[in-house]
Amino acid sequence: MTPEGSLLNCTCGVQGSTNSQFFWPGYSSGPNLLVPNVRRAQNGTIYTCLKQTPGMNNETTLYTLQVAYGPSDNDTVLEGPPSFTTDGTKDLTLTCTAKNVNPTPLYGWPNKPNCMKTTKCTFKPELKDNGSLVFCTATSGVLETSGTGTYKINLAVTSAASDHKLSGGHIAGYLLLPLLLFVAA
Questions:
Q1: pTM beyond 0.90
Q2: What is the pLDDT of residues 57-85, one digit of tens each?
Q3: What is the DSSP letter of 53?
Q4: Distance (Å, rounded) from C-alpha 1 to C-alpha 65?
Q5: Which of 68, 84, 72 is CA-nearest to residue 149?
Q6: Residues 6 or more apart in contact with residue 14 via CB below 8 angstroms
């Protein structure tokens, strides 16, 4: 894997082979292939090393260039519904995607530690989560680069969730009211 922007330096040869000549047809008349400033557009380019030995058939070896690049914040997207209706028991699934990256990045969820290191994170948002941000990261396993995606939780709460959250307060009020009336009398 060659980092984008770096020099590809590839040598073709066989140890102990003194009688053979090696070259890269179309690129180099010797055993060394030098490609400066490698770009992602060159990812997958196939280079052929040719071995010529007097009195023998030519042999070739193929080399496929793998260029490492990305991810960036601009290419890392965290997607979920624009609004999520819940009664406090429903799962919300978010998807983190990094584009323009090679190889496939490693994913993480910095503020959702229970989510696995995959592209998806599923959790049950609570009322207190409304308006909070969720982050995902896509990190290159080759380069020291990463991208971050952000999602703002926008809850639409059903009455069942509102009633459920307020029921404890209602119960306490109903229990205290007769007690206060009894003390006042």
A1: no
A2: 999 999 999 999 999 999 999 999 999 99
A3: -
A4: 7
A5: 72
A6: 20, 51
- Which pLDDT score, from 0 to 100, does residue 14 have? 83
Per residue in 136-159, pLDDT tens?
A: 999 999 999 999 999 999 998 776
What distance in Å separates the CA atoms of residue 115 and residue 108, rounded to the nearest whole number?
A: 8
**Element housing 34 (H / E):** strand 32-35
Q: Are strands 8-11 and 32-35 parallel, antiparallel or unpaired?
A: antiparallel
Q: Does domain 73-163 have CATH number 3.10.20.310?
A: no
CATH of 2-68, one of 3.40.50.150, 2.60.40.10, 3.30.565.10, 3.40.250.10: 2.60.40.10
